[in-house]
Amino acid sequence: MPDHPVSAVVRRPQAAALRRVLLYGTLALLALVVIASLKHTIPAPQGALWPPFPDLARTTQPYDPPVMAGQWFYALTSAGFYARLGDQVVLTNSGHGVREGTVATDPDGTGIRGVFGPAARSATCAYEGHVCAGSDMSYVVLPADRIPWGHLNVVDMGAGGYRVLAPDTKPLGCASIANGASVEINGRNVYRSGHVIGQGQYLFAADGHTFPCMVVADIVVTGGDSGGAVLVDGLPAGVVSRTFAEEGRVGFTPLDAGLDELGLTLCTEPDCGLVPPR
Q1: 53: pLDDT confidence band, cut at 50, 70 and 90?
Q2: d(Cα 16, Cα 63) in Å, to the nearest integer?
Q3: How far is the C-alpha of 221 from the C-alpha of 156, rounded, in Å?
Q4: Hey, how many other C-beta atoms are within 10 angstroms of the C-beta on 66?
Q5: Could you tell me where the DSSP H helices lie in 5-141?
Q6: Residue 148, preceding bond cis, omega within 30 degrees?
Q7: What is the per-residue DSSP string for 207-228?
Q8: Which pLDDT band holds residue 49 (cuts at 50, 70, 90)?
Q9: Taking a C-beta distance cutoff of 8 angstroms, is the pair 81, 170 a contact?
Q10: Strand partners, 232
Q11: How many Å apart are CA 201 and CA 127, to the nearest integer?
């Protein structure tokens, strides 16, 4: 995992000037190193590449077919949220690591979980040598037999339980994510919680991708957490994207921007506004 120096600008909306300076210093110390440990280039697989991560502490029984939103999904990625692409049901995932067109298989390499689509991209990019995107996100198109009809507004947080998105739920963006807000993830089927400690633009010479907003929380992550659902104050908010500092603090990008760039609509109804097959 390469080490890279950090010069990120941390934004604290509506904070006092002195507090901002102190917080800038805190994050600068925290992020002396950016570890791009969640970034992997994975070739098209011949069967499963990794065994599934255990889910020994879950508090609920899985549905049939199971809800994959919030769970480990494939290779070194975890699933985010169910969404619609026209009349197709998809799962959000990581924008790095798995190439478009990759077939996600079950752990035994036989059953098909879905096919990876493109990563989110901005229409233009002002930074030479970089790829700009609103969020580090892609999606997986699901086969019919893997769609948990009646539960598409559910996120399975393992030991954190099922979370049901209400019909009026809106995906959060950076402007709605405040310092100190509670954060929950379940990547690798390991439930963790913490708090937002800062946010700012993600732009480094050593990383070819840049994002207008990266939120940092005091939760430790590693490979396999990429793409996982992030809840902020219980609401759908982001995509696990990077690790910061030697502690491996999570950096996540906003959900709303990724959905917009990919043309997706977050599922907030049991059948996501579609008619299930009979």
Answers
A1: confident
A2: 48
A3: 18
A4: 13
A5: 17-30
A6: no
A7: -SEEEEEEEEEEEE--TT-TT-
A8: low
A9: no
A10: 183, 235
A11: 12
Neighbour-count burial for 121-138, b at 16+ CB within 10 Å, e otherwise: ebeeeeeeebbbbbbbbb
Q: What is the DSSP letter of 158?
A: G
| Residue 139 region by backbone torsions, left for phi larger than 0, else alpha for psi between -120 and 50, else beta | beta
Q: Which pLDDT band holds residue 241 (cuts at 50, 70, 90)?
A: very high
Q: Which of 240, 253, 252, 219 is nearest to 30 (CA)?
A: 219
**CA–CA separation, 102 vs 100, rounded Å?**
6
Q: Is-above-0.90 flag for pTM?
A: no
Q: How far apart are CA 230 and CA 95, in angstroms?
A: 15
pLDDT tens, position by position, 90-114 = 999 999 989 999 999 998 888 999 9
Q: Residue 136's pLDDT band (boundaries 50, 70, 90)?
A: very high
Domain ranges of the chain: 3-37+170-254
Residues 82-110, buried b or exposed e (16+ Cβ, 10 A)?
bbbeeeebbbbbbbbbbeeebebbebeee
Residues 30-45, mean pLDDT to the nearest whole number: 35
Residue keyed to tokens 């509670």: 182
Q: Which residues contact 116 (CB under 8 A, 6 or more apart)?
A: 93, 98, 99, 100, 101, 102, 103, 104, 138, 139, 140
The domain 3-37+170-254 is classified under which CATH number: 3.40.1170.60, 2.60.40.10, 3.90.226.10, 2.40.10.10?
2.40.10.10
User: For residue 81, which phi and psi values (nearest 5 degrees)?
Assistant: -130, 155
- CA–CA dist 230, 223 (Å, integer): 16
